[in-house]
Amino acid sequence: MSLTRRLLITFAAAGLVAGPAFADQAAEVKQRELAAQIVNGAPFKKDGPYKIGVSAGYLSNSWVVFALQHVRWEASRHSEIEDVLVTDAAFNPAKQVADIEDLLRQDIDLLIYWPVDDTAVADVLKRAVEQGVPTVQAGGGFTDAPGTVTNAYISQWNLGEMVARRLMDDIGGEGRIVAMLPIAGTTAAVDQLDALETVLKEYPKVELASVEYGDWNRAKAKQITENLLQRFPKIDGVFSPAGQMSIGMAEAFDEAGRLSEVTFSPGDEYNGWMKWVAKHKQGGAVTFPTRAGQVAVELGVKLLKGEDVVRGEAVPSVYIAPDAIDDYVSPDAPDDWWASQLPAEFLPEQ
């Protein structure tokens, strides 16, 4: 059975086809309304061949590597795309600004980006649009910043709400929890925290003891968790939507001899995390689809052809229960691997 088919079955079985019931729908409803706005493609219409510039805020993260391969795969399916130029800012906001400026000097026709910091790149993105280069944010949360023409986005609020509700169910609605979020200040971190805090309003017996930022980094999350374990003699639950950070946290709990005391939320489809779920039969996953990179190219090509697009196309997350994880985990693949439909020739090297 294909990955897509398995995900659709999981989606339907979880009752998520029509969308979950949010604790407070205001933020998500507003985001959906903004995302549904139509962007006029006429100002960006041009003849090919096209040159795509990809500004990665970081390439040390395995999710980004897989999403980038989705960009390359989709680009290969369009004969009018002649080149894909990729830069890596290595988590440096100033370098990402310089990278985008350099890509513009190379006369790119389309810019796809993953930000280190949304605010830092806001001005250079606006300059790109003013030069007639459409900009597509790929894989983060939705943004309606003036410099972002459209988004291939994963609803971080929706994801965070799904993860938080599963955690509340698993800890019985009471206890002390800690949260591990991605890069501070990014849409992902802000929306995930907002979703968690919204859900927690329904659970007065749950204490959010600490909010931390692990930068989607396994080693950093582990180090932070080691400090949390020294600060708190008892931790009942962990809210961590990112599998890379979840597995780092689990390692810290295990090495401290405290793994049995804690319940983990779902992570994502990071293979190292799914291996852990398969072994321990808890947590599960809420997917963070790497095919957002592919959707970004699709949106960008439509704009270059003068077609209208929506301001944001959502790439939906779905829940995978622990007892279904064996259908998704790759036991023989590295931890830094992601479930995907990439053809073999586009899979990253193991």
TrEMBL record:
<feature type="domain" description="Periplasmic binding protein">
    <location>
        <begin position="52"/>
        <end position="307"/>
    </location>
</feature>
<dbReference type="InterPro" id="IPR025997">
    <property type="entry name" value="SBP_2_dom"/>
</dbReference>
<dbReference type="GO" id="GO:0030246">
    <property type="term" value="F:carbohydrate binding"/>
</dbReference>
<keyword id="KW-0732">Signal</keyword>
<feature type="signal peptide">
    <location>
        <begin position="1"/>
        <end position="23"/>
    </location>
</feature>
<comment type="similarity">
    <text>Belongs to the bacterial solute-binding protein 2 family.</text>
</comment>
<dbReference type="Pfam" id="PF13407">
    <property type="entry name" value="Peripla_BP_4"/>
</dbReference>
<dbReference type="InterPro" id="IPR028082">
    <property type="entry name" value="Peripla_BP_I"/>
</dbReference>
<dbReference type="GO" id="GO:0030313">
    <property type="term" value="C:cell envelope"/>
</dbReference>
<protein>
    <submittedName>
        <fullName>Sugar ABC transporter substrate-binding protein</fullName>
    </submittedName>
</protein>
